[in-house]
Amino acid sequence: MLLILLVGAAIGVASYRLFFEQRAYIGIAGPEDPLEAWSEADYVIWAYNSTFYGSRNMSTLLPLMLDDNLTYTCEMTDGNLTNGGLIFLKQVQKPLDYTPSANVTVWESYQDSVKIYTSSSSGKIGDCPTTANDTLTLQSGTSEQYLLNVTVTATTHFYNFFFDVNALTQNCTIKIYMQIAEGNWAEMTDMRKTALSTDDGLILKEFWADHNLRFTFQSHVSEGTTRSIPYRYFSEGY
Fold it and tell me: Which domains, and CATH codes, for the chain?
């Protein structure tokens, strides 16, 4: 019985030592290292302190490197993804002189902005709206007028298109077209709106587009003179 107890105690001590030695090795980069939060990434790069940047392999949970050069850290991490993969930058901005390799995607989470980078493109994600605003001029007459063209270079989330039609004295129909192919525009009929002269403004809620857009205005009765229509909208490219 005594022998069994001694053997059990020895195994327990060995297990205890092995567990904490592994924990010490895994945590070698320090307590600021994000061990658990981003396990879906292949690698996580973070600012260890004001001087060094760490990189961790999220499959093995073992640190890859710790270096004071962020570009070098990104390039070395990228180089380990021979078959492509995902690098997550935790509260770190991608260096301008680092471009991800083919099939490598970089997600940058810095302050209140999230961005995605590949070898050929980049874009903002979530809570990073771009505002556009200007004033359109509606000519007198009853013909359909193309007043606003929006060039779309990537899949884009548009929301809160606002047209101030307070200056109009006659009813007006607003149509939205999407460019399906070169020279081929198709109206999104479900989004056709009729703005009354008594309206102070007209809001078109959110929608997505991956092709160029065109907004047209057509007075039901001629205004008799030009009218100004201020507009504003928000967009996020993905």
Answer: 30-125 (no CATH), 130-237 (2.60.120.510)
